[in-house]
From TrEMBL:
<feature type="domain" description="Acetyl-CoA dehydrogenase-like C-terminal">
    <location>
        <begin position="500"/>
        <end position="626"/>
    </location>
</feature>
<dbReference type="InterPro" id="IPR006091">
    <property type="entry name" value="Acyl-CoA_Oxase/DH_mid-dom"/>
</dbReference>
<dbReference type="InterPro" id="IPR036250">
    <property type="entry name" value="AcylCo_DH-like_C"/>
</dbReference>
<dbReference type="GO" id="GO:0004466">
    <property type="term" value="F:long-chain fatty acyl-CoA dehydrogenase activity"/>
</dbReference>
<dbReference type="GO" id="GO:0006631">
    <property type="term" value="P:fatty acid metabolic process"/>
</dbReference>
<dbReference type="InterPro" id="IPR025878">
    <property type="entry name" value="Acyl-CoA_dh-like_C_dom"/>
</dbReference>
<keyword id="KW-0274">FAD</keyword>
<comment type="similarity">
    <text>Belongs to the acyl-CoA dehydrogenase family.</text>
</comment>
<dbReference type="Pfam" id="PF00441">
    <property type="entry name" value="Acyl-CoA_dh_1"/>
</dbReference>
<feature type="domain" description="Acyl-CoA dehydrogenase/oxidase C-terminal">
    <location>
        <begin position="292"/>
        <end position="459"/>
    </location>
</feature>
<keyword id="KW-0276">Fatty acid metabolism</keyword>
<protein>
    <recommendedName>
        <fullName>Broad-specificity linear acyl-CoA dehydrogenase FadE5</fullName>
        <ecNumber>1.3.8.1</ecNumber>
        <ecNumber>1.3.8.7</ecNumber>
        <ecNumber>1.3.8.8</ecNumber>
    </recommendedName>
</protein>
<keyword id="KW-0443">Lipid metabolism</keyword>
<dbReference type="GO" id="GO:0070991">
    <property type="term" value="F:medium-chain fatty acyl-CoA dehydrogenase activity"/>
</dbReference>
<keyword id="KW-0285">Flavoprotein</keyword>
<dbReference type="InterPro" id="IPR009075">
    <property type="entry name" value="AcylCo_DH/oxidase_C"/>
</dbReference>
<comment type="pathway">
    <text>Lipid metabolism; fatty acid metabolism.</text>
</comment>
Amino acid sequence: MMSHYKSNLRDIFFNLFEVLGRDEVLGQGPYEDMDHETAVAILTEIEHLASTKLAASYVDGDRNPPVYDPATKSVVLPESFKQSFAELMKAGFYSLELPAELGGQPTPPSLQWAANELNLGANPALFMYSAGPKFATVLWYNGTERDRRIAEIMVERQWGATMVLTEPEAGSDVGAGVTRAIPQPDGSWHIEGVKRFITSGEQDMTENIIHLVLARPVGVEGVGGPGTKGLSLFIVPKYDFDLQTGELTGERNGVYATNVEKKMGIKVSTTCELTFGDGAPAKGWLLGEVHNGIAQMFQVIEHARMLVGTKAIATLSTGYLNALEYAKTRVQGADLAAGGDRTAPRVTITHHPDVRRSLMTQKAYAEGLRALVLYTASVQDRTWSARLSGGTDEAAERLNDLLLPIVKGYGSERSWVTLGTESLQTFGGSGFLQDYPLEQYVRDAKIDTLYEGTTAIQGQDLFFRKIVKDQGQALTDLSMQIGAWLSPQADTVGSRASDEDGQLKEERDLLEQGLEHVGEIVSTMIDTLESAHPKAPEGDVRNIYKVGLNTTRLLMAMGDVICAWLLLRGAEVALERLNGELPPADKAFYEGKVASARWFARTVLPRLAAEAQIAEHTDLAIMDLPEESF
Ligand code: ST9
Ligand code: FAD
């Protein structure tokens, strides 16, 4: 059977080894056993598994989604999907994401995310069901002896796991959650409340599920106050188990899936209403025996935001490659240059300028976004290396924090829009049919702009937390990296390596201007924010709305500039390679890299001037408008 999944391992290798220089970390220090050859072999093996056994159940999982039985409050997943799951867990590649103490194989994050792209592109829901061992690391890093033992058991027995924040009245506003945690004499807690939209909340593929639940402790002095800071994180198993051996005791804990949602996409991923403590108590333990729930949960969220961004771009990449294959064979119409000659031969649609525009737009975004993910992962290489040697790399932590909302927010928006308006469109009416994977891709990728914090939340996180609260440190660092690459004299990391003959001169100028426009947007927003301070001369607190009207704009503009920069860095490397003798396939690949970077710079960056102007002229008109006039 033909696989729906078309990977781009060549471009992944290009980013990892030719642009981002990941050989700097492989095969040394903590990654001694993970050298270049091993990394290539592992990615090749994962790519094979992903495009065959994992991709095999992608369509069936959509057409025959899990069946929920309200009588037993359980679900049955399709057999084909279970087989893929068994293959994924048997392959054991999750060990790449685990610390050595949990049986992991130390692997730099850049390699982990390259691998994750392949899995997420082939069968995203499958990969999310398999995250139990990775979830165990949160217990390992934050836990008591007891929690660490649970973490070991979760890995040994390959249990499932969930992150449980959302409630009917607490979505973006997690701090509005009312689920309660009541302390018990034996040191455990009973959870009471209803959570909704919980991914993988019920399934019949693993022996047990560990739910990581945010709830508000009651009756304990000094904790459980309002908002997110009053939430604590509890470890709540589906089935009770022996804390030493991990054996199930046979007792069902009082947490049940009381509904499974019917939805637009990722249908095989169960999205559950979970009811805690309605009847039998839902027993849990306080993670680390400290009340620090939101900060602990954000360790999970940060990882999951990177994962969702990577899922989105992985889908765009396979969407583009499917569209490209179709376009190469679909014959329709005559060449535009045939000048209306009715007898002119019909050509494949790749001959039409508008189809070329569309294909190159898809290629440029798919490759730009991949570069964004892997660049961010390479920043995580720095944070991991520092931590593994007992220190911290504060600059890298800040930069990673700055990049995460861009990977998640910008990555998912650009991917979803491009999949729908370009990749599916390339197929004409056929794109609308279930004969091709595009209609499922579009449905499955929409969720990426929604969960793990909507795009609005990512934009606010970027501006208020990652720029203002950070006092612009990470933003300055990033701007300096881009500036260093733009400056011909620079010789710092990431600086331009060649281009002496100025083949990318126009694109560099465009990048420089784009960077300036982003700077203008940020300055406008900072000035406006200051003018909203009650103590500012003529300060008007309502000016904060003008900031809020531009946070998503800034998110998207920054994403455009960073992707352009990374694509141009790639183009520079490609141009260098093109100076030498190359086999035809490599020549075509590198020429494609130069072309997509140029296309992105020339068609995307000029729009930033307009964005800066729009930001500057923002007023309060739509905030003043009565709701009735909308
Ligand atoms: C969901 C799941 O949607 C979707 C798919 C799941 C798939 C699962 C896949 C598997 C994942 C595997 C994971 C493995 C784990 C690996 C871990 C490795 C170790 N960064 O601004 P404040 C914290 S789930 C870090 O006042 P508000 C911070 O502690 C549902 N921390 O917020 C802060 O205190 P401080 C997803 C952050 O106004 C505190 O929060 N739902 C960040 O009280 C309070 O901050 C959402 O994402 C950050 N960026 O609350 C909700 N931000 O300032 C979206 C905050 O002292 N809503 N903290 O440091 C939001 O994010 C809101 O902005 C809000 C607002 C809730 C934070
Ligand atoms: P709302 O918060 O009501 O938002 C509605 C609209 O208002 C959005 O456009 C939003 O951007 C906007 N908005 C809201 N507040 C603001 C604001 N302050 N400023 C500007 N705009 C704002 N949750 C979990 O805990 N665990 C899971 O595993 C999980 N999996 C999910 C799986 C699926 C399929 C779905 C659909 C959701 C899942 N969620 C999960 C929940 C998900 O994280 C939330 O749906 C999401 O955070 C948004 O919350 P909401 O749906 O309540 O929307």
